[in-house]
Structure formats: structure tokens, C-alpha cells
Design a protein that fits this description.
The complex is a heterotrimer of chains A (about 300), B (about 280) and C (about 325).
Chain A: E1 2-13, E2 16-28, E3 33-37, H1 44-51, E4 59-67, E5 70-71, H2 77-83, E6 88-91, H3 105-109, H4 111-116, H5 121-133, H6 140-143, H7 153-165, E7 171-175, H8 183-194, E8 200-205, H9 208-214, E9 217-222, E10 225-231, H10 232-237, H11 242-249, E11 293-295, E12 298-300
Parallel strand pairs in A: 3-8, 3-9, 6-7, 7-8
Antiparallel strand pairs in A: 1-2, 1-4, 4-5, 9-10, 10-12, 11-12
Chain B: H1 9-28, H2 30-33, H3 63-99, H4 101-116, H5 119-130, H6 134-161, H7 164-171, H8 176-212, H9 223-232, H10 241-262, H11 272-275
Helix pairs in contact in B: 1-3, 1-10, 3-4, 3-6, 3-8, 3-10, 4-6, 5-6, 6-8, 8-9, 8-10, 9-10
Chain C: H1 2-31, H2 36-41, H3 43-52, H4 54-63, H5 70-82, E1 88-89, E2 94-95, H6 96-131, H7 136-150, H8 153-167, H9 183-221, H10 224-231, H11 236-274, H12 279-289, H13 292-320
Antiparallel strand pairs in C: 1-2
Classes of the chains: A alpha/beta (about 300), B mainly alpha (about 280), C mainly alpha (about 325).
Chain lengths: ~300, ~280, ~325
Amino acid sequence: MLEIQNLTVRFQLPQGTITALEGVNLTLRDGEKLCVVGESGSGKSVLMLAVLCLLPENACVSGSILLDGEDLLQKSQKDLTEIRGMKLSYVPQGSGNSLNPLLRLGFQVSESLVAHRRLPRRGADQRSIQLLQQFHLGDEEQLVRSYPHTLSGGMRQRALLALGIAPEAPYLVADEPTKGLDSDRVGLVVDCFNSLEGCSLLCVTHDLTFAQQVADRVAIIYAGQMIEYETAEQFFGSPRHPYSKALLDAVPERGLNAIPGFSPGHEDYTDACRFYNRCPCRTAQCQTQPKDRWDGERMVKCIYGAP
Amino acid sequence: MKQRNLLQGRAAAVTGMVLLLLILLVAVFAPALAPYDPWAMGTPYLPPSSEHLLGTNDIGQDILSELIYGTRVSMFIGVCAALITTIIGTAVGVLAGYFGGIVDHILMAVTNVVIVVPSLPLTVVLVAYLQAGLWNIIIALCVTAWAGTARLIRAQVMQLRQQPFVQLERTLGMGNGYIMLVHILPNVSGIILTRGALSVASAMLSEASLSFLGLGALGQKSWGAILNNAFFRNGVVNNCWWWYYPPILCICVCVVAFMLIGSWDDRRSRGQNLLAM
Amino acid sequence: MRRSRYLLKRSIGYLATIFLILLFNFVLIRVMPGDPMLYILGEEDYYDFYYNNPEYLEQLCQEYDLDGSILHQFGLYWRNILHLDFGTSYHYGRPVLDLILFRASWTLRLVLPAVLLAALLGVLLGLPAGWFSGRWGERLGTPVLTILHTIPTYCLSIILLSIFAYRLGWLPLGGMVSGGKSGAAYVWDMLWHMTLPLIVLVLYRVSYDYLILRSSVREIREEPYITTAFSKGLSQRVVLFRHVLPNALLPYVTAVCLQFGAAVAGTMTMEVIYNWSGMGSLIYDAVNNRDFPVLQTAFLVIAVCTILANLLADVLYAAIDPRLRREVPSR
């Protein structure tokens, strides 16, 4: 079980301190698939990196991240090395340089196995071919010997998925695994995630359709705060937070009703509810931030969310 | 955020400016500050004393006065050369970056050739042919120095050209010259200034090298020339530390000052990049 | 083949540069005031012939066809260059090119070890400094090395010479090798003479190398693929040497090669101070003697060296970076 308790992440920057995440509480049960949904800049990538303890040095992290009862934030680097790539695996974001430009793809995909399971480097290619075949990259034997720059964006994304599932870790953390993939390919990812036996998945996405196909539970992050935490069924049936409703209405199938306005920048945080300016149902009460309203396993950070 | 190190950031730049201001003041008020005429001869090889704060050289000239007057020569050459370098570099960079295409190809081909040519030997050759006058040296120093600035500015201008406001101006039918002067130049002024400061430093270094080799401006007492005297007229052999350490110190302080100014750029730091993901 | 196209393009650029330098040399002696023969022969020889052997001067004048068309002169100029004939220095009594290549070998004995040693030290210091950037070691080391880099080589040379040679007497005042030695003794003696100039050069270069490697390591540290590497549970050592260092070395190798040319030029002042009879002292003497043919050819040789170093940088870059290799390498 992965429990995130009261996680707050701040960055020290020359201009001052920026709060990227504030008081996030999440639980990922064994074998459960949890999708964290939010806009870009909402802090979801920071959440992923916090779980992996891979935030840059200028990040101040408080709270706790319990993996099977042990707090990752208190672990030594050596212990973390043992955990990463064995117990906890990561699917990096596909945009940008998530693959080392100077190493062949085959080695990079299975590198965690070489490191932890003493897989010989020669065997790495074989294993990588099998892994890549799952995602229909085509001509995998050639591919494992090529360098990342020869891959298209979509191919790179799928190679990263293969890299993430390579160690068959019980906990998988994925950062936007469907970004830049067309719907057929998204289907592959869905199949892959659904076929992971006994693996708990923490997946960041802004693709609600994908989330619906994969998630057991959904957490919504808005401007650094978790504002709703529900079972998938509940969420896609009757979301409670106005932002969640708006998000679902913005899905193409429901008519692409974009939410007016923009989410606040880090410098614009006030005492009011962070969604205040864009909220269709704001009242004077919303001038002060609502509390997290827990109701058993569910949570909503809104005055309307009262059970 | 914590300062990364002593040579970066605002404080460093301010330190550089203060140093520069002091040096400039010394250059401007040299006649008032110098205790003696730097050309007047007296007792040779005097160690520092209250009369001659930095002693005298082999023909009895006061070294402090030489240094103070030397500030003038060194600064003048450095600033003039940097000014010309920066103007040429900026012009080439802006034109190449803004027009692109064939103009860019030609200008960058020239720049790439110039950048490969080793600058100090070329300068030496030029000075040997041109005779060592003050302006000849300045020209010789400028011949290759502009290329680096041109490259940097071109890269920046190419980015700017894609910006909506420039595109808008173009569709509005504004003249190219107008757009370049009013919209492009102010946006690269940061680079121009920092590069300019670094150009002064490198021009002063080159000038000092030339003067040290005895190729400096004839009859001018620059810091390099003082060092040349100290070395070739037995200052080092006779252990006259007061003769050769001060010009070395002056050169170094001056270069550091310009470098501090030139190093001032507020780069985006970690964390911020991460949040933009 | 991407790589060969890239190298071809670079080579054409370099050939153009050499051509322009030769053109520059040709034009320079003809636009200068006074008799072009003065610049072709150098001041000493010119006046020697002028007063003692005017017929020979006249004959040489004919040989270069200085009264003929500029086109014909240009043709002759190129013919001489293609025959590697850069004239004769009467001052030294041997062909200019011979003289310069001999002197260049002495400069290389100084520059080559210095550049390599500095590159090695640059990695040893720059890698930890870039990785642990912000810790006290780096925060102390970087300003110290940056300031070291601002001290011109000749200033540092004078300081070290005055301390270690004059005051302490540990090391020789200058020169390259004492006479009458052979074999191992000769090599040791040369190394002993080399110590001070080598230290100066290494100190100057290492600060530059250090700064380059440090900043590229610092940039690479932020790259997403480093996060990926850590997420696989690799130890810091593995990440550093497998993922960070090779990527950091890519621009570094280029930078080291490029400074090779600058280093040859940079030894000029130092050779004069340490009385090292390399290219630098040769140029210095040539300037003082107004020995123009030596000066021009020396400049040409330095330029060619620099260009070769540039080419080496391009070749190495193309060899290391897979982005410039063929699409799928064969085993």
C-alpha cells in the first residue's frame, strides 16, 4: 500500500518560494489503479517525482510517503536505490529527453534489470525486444540497436512504457503515458495497464477518457491542491467538485465545453478557494479556502461537497 | 535562493561596476592623481617608500604614476576596441538573424571563417605591418573579435523574428529598419551589454599581451608596456617586485571587473523548469 | 550518410578559411606602403641586398614578377605555395617552412602535454563540481579557478618565474635543455626545463576546462534522462559514469580540441619569458627583425594547426554522437 500523507512540496527560487503541492493525502491500495488528473502546471508531475524521491535539491518536501508502511522520505539514498526499479518503477514523460541520447534503446529499456537482477547486457536486448513487442513498435530487433533520436514521439512514449514495466515492480508510477499517442495506441496502453497483475498503478494524466478506461480511483489536482478523490465509478457518474464537473463537460464526447479562464499562477494564490475565479457556483463563503471534506474513502475540497 | 558562487548574480555585477567606476575615475583624473610625471627620471631601482609609493624603475620613473597614466591607455584601447567590436558584431548578428536566407548564409560564412582564425597571431601580424600606432592597434584588435558577438546575437534575433509582435509589425507594413531598431535591438540589449563588457576585458588582455611583447602603441605607457619594461629591463632578475606585481594586479583586477559585469544573467533556475512541465 | 555530409561541409569551410588567409597574405604585402620586396624578403635581407647586392634584388624582383600583372603574380604565389616554397630566411639561413616546422615541434612538446593534462584534470575536478554544484568545494573552487583564468599566462609566468627560479632557485630560469646530454638524461633535463611553462599552461587551461565541464554536467543533471536513470534504481556512481559523463564529454571533447589552436597561440608570450625556442619566440623575433616571410608563414602554420584541431573536433564529435552516425549501426 502506498500512502501519501499531507505532502507539501515547495521550491526555493531566487524570486521567492513557490508552493507546488499543498497538503496532498492519497492512498493507493495493493492492485489498485489510481489516476491523478489535472491541467499542466497543477503539480502532478511534481507529485510523481516526490513519490520517487527524485525532486531537485531546491525542493522542500514535508509530510510522508509510506510505501508498505515505510516512509520513503526518511530512507537513505542507498535504500532508495534498492527500492527504485525493484519495488517502485517509473514511466517517464515522453516529451523531451527522457532517454539518454548516447545509449542504445535495448540497453536503456532493460537497464533496471541489468542493475538489479544481474541480467547480462547481452540478455538485455532479448528482454527489451519482448517488452517492446507488447506495444507494437515494429521491427523491434532493429529498434533495440538504434539510438533514441531515431524514434518518433509516439514510439518514444511506448518505449518508455516498456522501460517502466520492465522490472515488473509491484508499484508503477506513470507520468502522462498517453501523451502524443493516437487512440489505437492509447488502447495498447490501456490493455497493458489492465493486464498488469497485482501491480498498483499511480498514473498522472489529463486524458479523462483514458482515465475512465483504466482507473479504479481518481484524484483531481488543481493548482497544487487535491480537490477531489473518488472511486472512478462515482467520479465519472456524479462528480462533486465544480471543477470536476467542468472537466468532464470539456471532454469532446460531452460537447467540448471549455472551462472559462485560466488556473491561477503560483504568484496569484490567495486565501480564496483556488477555483474561485472560474467557479460557476461561487459564493461569499468561497472567499476562504474550503477544508478537505472526507467522507469515508472519498474527499472533496468544496463547500458543496458536504455529504 | 542561495548564491551559487561568488562570481554570479546581482551582487557580483554591482561589485564589477563599482570596480569599473573606480578604474574609470583613475583614468579620467590621471594627471591630478599621479604624484609625478611618469616620464620624469630620477633615482633608479628605489623600493617603495613614502616618497615613491611603488618605487621607481630602472631609469627612476615613478611606477605609481606610470600605472595611473597606464590606466588611461589601457582603458582607452579596451573601450574603443570593444565599442567597435560590439557595433560590428551587433550589426552582423541582427542583419543575419533578421533577414535570414542568403544574407544570413553570407554573413555567417564570413563569421565562421573569422572565428577559426587564431586572433592573437593575426593581431601580431597586422601590428607588425601597420606600425604600432594607437588606432592601428585598436583596429588590429577588432578584426577578429566581433565574430563571437555576431553569432550570439544572430541566434537571439532568429528567435525574436518568430515572435508574434514582430510578425504583426511586418504584416502592418513597417519598414525592416524600423522593426530592427525599435523592436529587435532593445530586446537584445542585454546580450549586447554583457558581451560588450566581456569584449572590453578581452581587448584589454590582448592589448596587454601585445604591449608585453613590445608591440604596443609606440610611446604609450600601458600596463602591458610597464610589464614589458619590468621583464626585459631586468626588473625580474633584480627582484624588483614593486615593478612587476602592480601592473599584473591592475590587469587582473580590471579583467575581473568586466567579467563580473558580463556574468550577470538571470538564468532560469531549477524547479521553475519543472513546474513548467 | 549524415556523418560524411557533415564532415564534408565542415572541410569545405576550413579550406575556404585557409584560402582566405593565403589571399590575405598575398594582398597584405602588396597594399603596404613601400617596396613589396621588403615584405617578401624581410627588412634585414632586403637592406642587405639593397646595399650590397642590388643585382640579386633585381633578379628576385623579376622572379616574383612584381612589375607584371597582378594576376600573374597571383599565379606565381600559388605555384610557390603548392610547392610548399615559402621563401628562405637569410637571417637563419634556411627555408622558412623548415625553420617554422622545427620550431613548431618544440611548441608542440609544450602544448600537447599541457592540453591533455589540463583536459584530464578538468574532468577530475569539473565532474564532481558540476554534480555537487552548490556544495562548499564547488563554491570555493569555481571562483578560484575563474580568477585563475583571468590572469594572463605571461603574468602567471612572471610570478612563478620570479618565485621558483629567481628566489628559490628550484627550477631553471629558462631555455629548453642544457647542452651535452643524451638519452634519458636529455629527456629528464628537458622535462626539468619544461616544468614551469607546463605548470603555467596547465593552470591556465585547466580553469577553462573545469568551467566548461562543470557547466555541462550541471545542465545534464537537469535532463529528464537522468531522472529516468535514477528511477531505474541505479546508484549515483553508475548514473554519473554511464549517463552523465559521456553526455558531458561530447561538448567537452570539442572544446578541448578547439582550444588547442588557441593554446599554440597562447604560448607566444610564455615562450618569450621562458626562453623556449618555439613558434612563439620565433614570431617574437620575426617581429623585432621585421622578418616578414617568417611572420606570415608562421601565422599560416598556426592557422592551419587551429583548423586541423577544429577538424579533429568535428571528426571526434561525429564519431561519438550517434545523432550524426548512420541511422541503424551494424554490428
